[in-house]
Amino acid sequence: MDPAGLAAVGAMFDGTLPERMGIELVEAAPERVVGRMPVAGNTQPYGLLHGGASAVLAETLGSTGAALHAGPGRVAMGIEINATHHRSATSGHVTGVATRLHGGRSLATYAIEITDDEGRLVCTSRLTCMLRDVRPDMRPGGRPDGRPGGG
Questions:
Q1: Residue 113: helix, strand or coil by DSSP?
Q2: Which terminus of the chain is more exposed, N or C, with fewer CB under 10 A?
Q3: What is the pLDDT of residues 24-39, one digit of tens each?
Protein backbone atom coordinates (compact mmCIF):
# COMPACT_ATOMS: atom_id res chain seq x y z
CA MET A 1 0.00 0.00 0.00
CA ASP A 2 1.36 3.44 -0.89
CA PRO A 3 2.06 6.00 1.89
CA ALA A 4 -1.17 7.93 1.21
CA GLY A 5 -3.27 4.76 1.43
CA LEU A 6 -1.49 3.70 4.61
CA ALA A 7 -2.13 7.14 6.12
CA ALA A 8 -5.83 6.88 5.21
CA VAL A 9 -6.12 3.47 6.87
CA GLY A 10 -4.21 4.76 9.92
CA ALA A 11 -6.59 7.73 10.15
CA MET A 12 -9.32 5.25 11.15
CA PHE A 13 -7.60 5.13 14.55
CA ASP A 14 -8.08 8.85 15.27
CA GLY A 15 -9.80 9.23 18.64
CA THR A 16 -9.88 5.47 19.31
CA LEU A 17 -8.11 3.05 21.65
CA PRO A 18 -5.33 2.22 19.14
CA GLU A 19 -4.43 5.92 18.95
CA ARG A 20 -4.37 6.25 22.75
CA MET A 21 -2.03 3.26 22.97
CA GLY A 22 0.32 4.71 20.35
CA ILE A 23 -0.27 2.03 17.71
CA GLU A 24 1.17 2.95 14.32
CA LEU A 25 0.62 1.08 11.07
CA VAL A 26 3.75 0.24 9.09
CA GLU A 27 2.20 -1.87 6.33
CA ALA A 28 -1.41 -2.74 5.50
CA ALA A 29 -2.91 -5.14 2.97
CA PRO A 30 -5.68 -7.74 3.25
CA GLU A 31 -3.10 -10.55 3.48
CA ARG A 32 -0.69 -8.90 5.96
CA VAL A 33 -0.75 -5.96 8.37
CA VAL A 34 2.26 -4.73 10.33
CA GLY A 35 2.12 -2.24 13.19
CA ARG A 36 4.08 -1.20 16.24
CA MET A 37 3.30 0.07 19.72
CA PRO A 38 5.45 1.60 22.46
CA VAL A 39 5.91 -0.38 25.65
CA ALA A 40 6.00 2.83 27.72
CA GLY A 41 2.49 3.78 28.80
CA ASN A 42 1.19 0.27 28.08
CA THR A 43 2.59 -1.55 31.10
CA GLN A 44 1.11 -3.24 34.14
CA PRO A 45 2.18 -2.21 37.68
CA TYR A 46 5.40 -4.29 37.54
CA GLY A 47 6.74 -2.37 34.53
CA LEU A 48 6.10 -5.18 32.05
CA LEU A 49 4.08 -4.82 28.84
CA HIS A 50 0.46 -5.46 29.83
CA GLY A 51 -0.98 -8.62 28.27
CA GLY A 52 -4.12 -6.70 27.42
CA ALA A 53 -2.02 -4.20 25.45
CA SER A 54 -0.65 -7.07 23.37
CA ALA A 55 -4.22 -8.25 22.77
CA VAL A 56 -5.26 -4.74 21.68
CA LEU A 57 -2.34 -4.59 19.23
CA ALA A 58 -3.23 -8.05 17.89
CA GLU A 59 -6.93 -7.23 17.48
CA THR A 60 -6.16 -3.87 15.88
CA LEU A 61 -3.89 -5.42 13.26
CA GLY A 62 -6.11 -8.42 12.55
CA SER A 63 -9.26 -6.30 12.37
CA THR A 64 -7.55 -3.89 9.99
CA GLY A 65 -6.63 -6.77 7.70
CA ALA A 66 -10.14 -8.19 7.92
CA ALA A 67 -11.68 -4.80 7.07
CA LEU A 68 -9.40 -4.49 4.04
CA HIS A 69 -10.32 -8.05 3.02
CA ALA A 70 -14.05 -7.33 3.47
CA GLY A 71 -13.90 -4.29 1.20
CA PRO A 72 -16.12 -1.22 0.81
CA GLY A 73 -19.63 -1.41 2.22
CA ARG A 74 -18.68 -4.17 4.68
CA VAL A 75 -17.52 -4.20 8.29
CA ALA A 76 -15.30 -6.56 10.26
CA MET A 77 -16.22 -7.37 13.86
CA GLY A 78 -13.94 -9.42 16.09
CA ILE A 79 -15.74 -12.47 17.46
CA GLU A 80 -12.87 -14.47 18.99
CA ILE A 81 -9.32 -13.69 20.10
CA ASN A 82 -6.73 -15.62 22.04
CA ALA A 83 -3.24 -14.65 23.13
CA THR A 84 -0.29 -16.56 24.53
CA HIS A 85 2.37 -14.45 26.24
CA HIS A 86 5.84 -15.92 25.78
CA ARG A 87 8.15 -13.31 27.33
CA SER A 88 8.00 -9.85 28.81
CA ALA A 89 8.94 -6.53 27.24
CA THR A 90 9.97 -3.61 29.44
CA SER A 91 11.11 -0.90 27.02
CA GLY A 92 11.19 0.16 23.40
CA HIS A 93 8.49 -0.95 21.01
CA VAL A 94 6.77 -4.18 20.11
CA THR A 95 5.94 -4.98 16.51
CA GLY A 96 3.00 -7.08 15.42
CA VAL A 97 2.58 -8.91 12.13
CA ALA A 98 -0.92 -10.14 11.29
CA THR A 99 -1.06 -12.77 8.55
CA ARG A 100 -4.34 -13.91 7.05
CA LEU A 101 -5.04 -17.60 7.62
CA HIS A 102 -8.55 -17.64 6.12
CA GLY A 103 -10.46 -15.05 4.12
CA GLY A 104 -14.01 -15.90 3.18
CA ARG A 105 -17.19 -13.91 2.62
CA SER A 106 -18.42 -14.18 6.22
CA LEU A 107 -15.26 -14.87 8.29
CA ALA A 108 -11.60 -13.85 8.24
CA THR A 109 -8.96 -15.28 10.58
CA TYR A 110 -5.49 -13.87 11.27
CA ALA A 111 -2.44 -15.16 13.11
CA ILE A 112 -0.56 -12.37 14.86
CA GLU A 113 3.04 -12.56 16.10
CA ILE A 114 4.33 -9.79 18.36
CA THR A 115 8.07 -9.34 18.82
CA ASP A 116 10.30 -6.96 20.79
CA ASP A 117 12.99 -4.66 19.38
CA GLU A 118 15.45 -7.58 19.37
CA GLY A 119 13.09 -9.75 17.33
CA ARG A 120 12.22 -12.04 20.25
CA LEU A 121 8.70 -13.46 20.33
CA VAL A 122 6.61 -11.73 23.00
CA CYS A 123 3.10 -12.94 22.14
CA THR A 124 1.21 -15.04 19.61
CA SER A 125 -2.45 -14.45 18.98
CA ARG A 126 -5.26 -15.56 16.69
CA LEU A 127 -8.24 -13.39 15.77
CA THR A 128 -11.43 -14.30 13.92
CA CYS A 129 -13.67 -11.55 12.56
CA MET A 130 -17.21 -11.80 11.25
CA LEU A 131 -17.70 -9.86 8.00
CA ARG A 132 -21.05 -8.21 7.48
CA ASP A 133 -22.67 -5.82 5.04
CA VAL A 134 -23.16 -2.33 6.41
CA ARG A 135 -26.83 -1.68 7.20
CA PRO A 136 -28.30 1.79 6.59
CA ASP A 137 -28.77 2.29 10.35
CA MET A 138 -25.22 1.18 11.17
CA ARG A 139 -22.52 3.69 11.99
CA PRO A 140 -19.25 1.87 11.20
CA GLY A 141 -17.08 1.66 14.30
CA GLY A 142 -19.81 3.30 16.38
CA ARG A 143 -18.31 6.69 15.60
CA PRO A 144 -20.60 9.72 15.42
CA ASP A 145 -18.83 10.95 12.27
CA GLY A 146 -19.63 7.69 10.45
CA ARG A 147 -15.97 6.83 9.70
CA PRO A 148 -14.92 3.23 10.28
CA GLY A 149 -13.01 2.48 13.45
CA GLY A 150 -10.09 0.06 13.83
CA GLY A 151 -9.83 -2.80 16.29
A1: strand
A2: N
A3: 999 999 999 999 999 9
Catalytic site residue from 19, 59, 113, 118: 59
**What's the residue count for the chain?**
151
Number of helices and strands (H, E) in the chain?
3, 6
Tell me the H-state helices in the chain: 3-10, 17-20, 51-70
Average pLDDT over residues 9-20: 89
Write b or e for each residue in 5-15: b if 16 or more Cβ atoms lie within 10 A of its Cβ, otherwise e.
ebeebbebbee
Q: How far is CA 7 from CA 1, 3, 68, in A?
A: 10, 6, 14
For 88, residues 6+ apart whose C-beta sits below 8 A from its C-beta are 48, 49, 122
Distance CA 78, CA 76 (A): 7
Among candidates 63, 28, 52, 54, which has minimal Cα distance to 113? 54
- Give 61-74 pLDDT, tens digit per residue: 999 999 999 999 99
**N-terminal to C-terminal alpha carbon distance within the chain:** 19
Assess whether 59 carries a catalytic annotation: yes
